[in-house]
Amino acid sequence: MVSIDELRAKIEKDDEFSTMPHIASKVVRMVEDPNVTASDLEKIISMDQVLTAEVLKLANSPLYAPRMPIVSLKHAISYLGMANIRSVALMVAVRSLYSSKQYGDIMANFWKHAAASAIVARNLVLAVKGINLNAEEMFTLGLLHDFGKVVLLKFYPKEYREIVARVSSGETDFYQEEKKVFGVTHAQVGALVLSNWGFPIDVVNAVGTHHDEPETEMNALLTLVNIFCSSWDYSFVSPEFELKFFERALDVLKIDEDAWRKEAESIRELLEKSSEVLGV
Ligand SMILES: [Fe+2]
Ligand SMILES: [Fe+2]
To answer: How far is the CA of 189 from the centre of ligand 1 (A)?
Structure first.
């Protein structure tokens, strides 16, 4: 068993988890500053070649579907807008935390789930009328909701690999196994990291409670996102473990099943077209 204080101390000592990746925090801070202009942002992003290339790649991906190819950073920033640039910078920075090869394909699968969740969350908000959440904020929430798994895998690789194996075989889910093995869940751990990274309290709370019965719109959205991802194989978890709060989530979001089904197919197609973004 592990105590939450022990984990907090480990996270605070860890280079990757104690603070938000540098370039992302810089871009996030700039986007939130009303005095910053698009050309200031261009200057900062252009200093980082990887980020520049990724911004261009994402701007041209099916996710943002430009009518004409976008070839310059300036054009990408004006096309995507500040809020989207924030999502893109965060996505690029966070992806590097999933790049470790030493865990076989576990990290790659975690990334696939994170990126797919980001896309599903954002596009559900954009497509289903009546969801009163911000699409780009929900992109970030989807992207980071399971980040606690990355932390637990890094800190306790042996135990966590065994958990992944049991979850993959369909006999259990992460939440129940983590409670048994650690007494602490990836939801709690993820909330600790996001609070260190300076995310707003409602986002931190949504991550911390994302496997409980949903009471807020953010949690209900995450419930739907996980149902999508597990049904379509963007997750290690079998759908039966995600489905228990389906009705409740639709209730909280006040959407009916028809509206959901209508959008599901197009979001699924978008995911299939976004394989480059998903790294699959
Ligand atoms: Fe989760
Ligand atoms: Fe998840």
So the answer is: 11
Radius of gyration of the chain (CA): 18
Whether the Cβ atoms of residue 78 and residue 39 lie closer than 8 Å to each other: no
Cα(242) to ligand 1 centroid in Å equals 10
CA atoms of 129 and 139, how far apart (whole Å): 17
Count CA within 13 A, CB hemisphere, residue 106.
22
Q: Which helix (H) or strand (E) holds 60?
A: none
- pLDDT value at residue 130: 85
Domains, in order of start, for the chain: 4-18+101-278 (1.10.3210.10)
Q: How many CA atoms lie within 13 A of 160 on its CB side?
A: 19
Distance 187 CA to ligand 1 centre (A): 6
Taken in order 143, 145, 151, 153, the sign of the CA dihedral is negative
Q: What's the 190 CA to ligand 1 centre distance in angstroms?
A: 9
Q: How many CA atoms lie within 13 A of 54 on its CB side?
A: 24
The model's pTM is 0.94
Tell how far the Cα of 36 is from the centroid of ligand 2, in angstroms.
34
Cα–ligand 2 centroid distance for 64 (angstroms): 23
Interaxial angle between packed helices 38-46 and 22-32, expressed in degrees from 0 to 180 and rounded to the nearest 10: 170
Whether the Cβ atoms of residue 26 and residue 44 lie closer than 8 Å to each other? yes
- Ligand whose nearest atom lies closest to the CA of 121: 2
Q: Which ligand ends up closest to the CA of 211? A: 1
Residues flanking ion ligand 2, Cβ below 5 Å: 146, 226
| Predicted confidence (pLDDT) per residue in 70-115, tens digit | 999 999 999 999 888 888 888 888 988 998 888 989 999 999 999 9
